[in-house]
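Standup notes
- HV: blocked on the assembly model, inputs below
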Amino acid sequence: EVQLVESGGGLVQPGGSLRLSCVASGFSFSDYWMTWVRQAPGKGLEWVANIKADGTGKFYVASVEGRFTVSRDNTKDSLYLQMNSLRADDTAVYYCARAVRSATTYNYFDPWGQGTLVTVSS
Amino acid sequence: DIVMTQSPDSLAVSLGERATINCKSTQSLLYNSNNMDYLAWYQQKPGEPPKLLIYWASARESGVPDRFSGSGSGTDFTLTINSLQAEDVAVYYCQQYYSTPLTFGGGTKVEIK
């Protein structure tokens, strides 16, 4: 069974940092682009970042560029999101998801993890 | 950036009736070289992550009931749920993957009348 499990969320003060993790199982992780998508409480979905299967290509939404870094460790079947300079509007559930199409950032996603909640507040 | 606009924001449909959700993009999602529309639909039930329903505007994901169908091309797309079931209560999102940043519609909440 394909599974994605996120962790690392929590309460952090504005300006602080947090590192999210997503552990994959049930598929060949190193063959797939991966993504982070977030959802503010009661709001819609916002794509955050994509990373190429080998980790050499990364794409971000403008609002997190320079503050967030997506990475992966294919030896550990793990995806990460390092979040720095956090702001109140970064408060959201962060989902990791597997990109369906190979070799492209222009993708749709399946499956998704259950998500991890990040709350930025003083 | 491509802006995705869904309508209506919410709708209430009787069991067994049809639900129609619209999604409009600010630029065409039709890629001329392969004649494919770069549009996906997701279902999100309360407390759950999104689930892929439709991709390439009209291709149904494996395991998705055939009462769900996608149509449209260019800038105007529709998700239709025929014979609405109780388990279809959810928020539905469209997503374009034609260009980055990848963007989603604001969601349409489907309830039972």
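- HV (later): unblocked. The mean pLDDT of chain A is 97. DSSP finds no helices and eleven strands in chain A.
- Next: hand off to the docking folks.
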